[in-house]
Amino acid sequence: MSNTNAPRLWLTLQLRDVPATTAWLEAIGFTEHVTHRDDTGVVVHAEYLWPAGGGVMLGAAERAGGQTDWVQQPGGAAAYLVVADTDATFAAAVAAGGTVHYEPVDRDFGGREAAVRDPDGNLWSFGTYAPGA
Amino acid sequence: MRPVPGLTLHAYDAVLDAPGTHRGMPSPTVTLVLPLGAPLDVAWEGEPASRVHQWSTVSGMHTRPALIRHDGWQSGVQLALSPSACRAVLGVPAAAVAGALVTLPDLLARAPWLADLPERLAASRTPAERVAVVRTGLARAVAQDHAATPAALGEALRLLGAGARVAAAAEAVGYSRRRLSTLVRAETGVDPQTYARLARLDRARSAVVDRVRSGATAPRFAEVAAVTGYADQAHLARDWRALVGRPPSEWLREEFPMLQAGPVPAG
Questions:
Q1: Which region is the signal sequence (chain A) (predicted)?
Q2: More confident residue, B112 or A125
Q3: Rounded to a whole number, what is the distance in Å from the CA of B54 to chain A's nearest CA?
Q4: How far is A106 from chain B (nearest CA, A)?
C-alpha cells in the first residue's frame, strides 16, 4: 500500500518521558497514528500526525540504550509548527505542561509566533507564518 | 489509562493510488481491524470461501497472507496484539482465534466490553476522537483484569520472538521442549518453531517497510536478512515465499507500486 498524501518529512524524537510528552503533543493538536509497545509496555515506536501535514516519529530513549546506529540527545530537538491561532496553541501548550520559551509576539517578517518546550525539553516554536503556503 | 504491553495501535487513513488489494502478512500477533466508511473485505489468500465483509475483524495467527480488497481509500483503526495483549484486551488466549477471521460480536460472549466499539467509532468525527474511542474500549478491556499469560511462558515467547532456538527458550524457563511446545500451542495456536518463524518474518517485513519509507528506494534483501536473523538472503526468500505466497521482490512491487520505476533486486 502506498498512501499518496502521507507526510514525506518526519521529525524524530527519543523521549525520556513518553506519556507526558505524547499527552502534550495531543494537547496542541497532534493525533496518534501508530504506537507500538513491547512486552513490558515501553513505547518502542510511535508516530503522531500534524493534521495539516507533517509528523513526528518517537520512541522511548531507554529503548535506544543498546542501539548505536541512531543516537540522539533526548530533549535536544527543535521544530517549527504552522498553526492557525498562535495564542490558542500557546495556551494549550502551556496548560498541558510546556515551559514558556517566549510568549506570542508579532514578527516583522510576518505572522505571530511563540515558543514552548515540551515536557521532555524539546523546543517547539509555532506561528502563523507559513512558508510555501 | 494503563498502557497495554505488547499492543500496537495504528489509526490509518490512506488515500491510495487506485482500487486494489493489500496482503496482510502473517505475524506473531492477533489483529483487530475496525474499518470506517466501508466494511473490511478480507479473505485468506487461496481460500475464496473464507471471504467476508465485516465492521470488525479479529484474526489470529496464521501461516498464509490475508487478502484485503479496497476501493482506493482505507480508513480505520488496527490493533496488533501480542499473546499477552490478546489476553488483556480480548480475554482469551491468542489460540482461541488462531487462523480465524471472526467479528467482535462473534467474540462478544467473551468480550462484551468491546461490543459498542465499531458503532462508537463510526460516530467519531476526527482522528483524535477515533483514538479516544479506542483508548476507552481498551481501558475497559484491561480493567477486566483477565488471567495473564503465565510469566515463564511469556518469557519463553519473548525469547522465541527475539530469535532464540526452541531448546534454548525451553532451557531458559526450565521447561522440557515437549512441555514448552504444548504450552505455546495452547497459548498461540501455533508451535514454537512457527511462532519464531512468524516473528522473524515480521522483523523482516518491518525492516523492508522502514527502508522503503526512509529512502523510497528498493531495500537490499541480503542486508535485511542479515539484520533480522536469517542465515542469508536465500533463507529469507524461501520463508517469505512459503508464508506470503510470493518472493519478497514481488510482494514489494505489489505493496509499493511507486518503486516500480527503480530497479528491484531479485528476491
A1: none
A2: A125
A3: 20
A4: 30
Q: Which amino acid is at A97?
A: G
* Minimal-distance CA residue of chain A relative to B251: A1
* Chain-chain contact of A1 with B14 (C-beta, under 8 angstroms): yes
Alpha helices in chain B (DSSP H): 83-90, 104-107, 117-122, 127-142, 151-161, 166-173, 177-188, 192-215, 221-228, 233-244, 248-255
Quick check: helix, strand or coil at residue A44? strand
A4 → closest Cβ in B15, B126, B128: B15
pLDDT in tens, A20-54: 999 999 999 999 999 998 888 889 889 999 988 99
In the numeric block, which cell numbers belong to residue B94? 491468542
pLDDT at residue B1 in the model: 60
**pLDDT for res B47:** 93
Residues of chain B with pLDDT under 50: 260-267
Q: Which domains does chain A have, with CATH numbers?
A: 10-61+73-127 (3.10.180.10)
**Quick one: B19 exposed, middle or buried, by C-beta within 10 A (0-12, 13-18, 19+)?**
exposed
Q: What pLDDT score does B71 carry?
A: 87
Q: Is A40 on the interface with B (CB under 8 A)?
A: yes
Helices (runs of H) and strands (runs of E) counted in chain A:
2, 8
Which residues of chain B does A32 touch, with a Cβ-Cβ cutoff of 8 Å?
9, 11, 128, 131
Say which residue the cell 500534524 belongs to: A50
For chain B, say whether A52 makes contact (Cβ under 8 Å): no
- Residues B186 and B17: their CA atoms lie apart, in Å, by 42
How far apart (Å, rounded) are the C-alpha atoms in residues B77 and B98?
21
| Residue among B84, B131, B258 minimizing CB distance to A39 | B84
Chain B: residue nearest A18 by CA? Answer: B3
Domain B7-142: assigned CATH number: 2.60.120
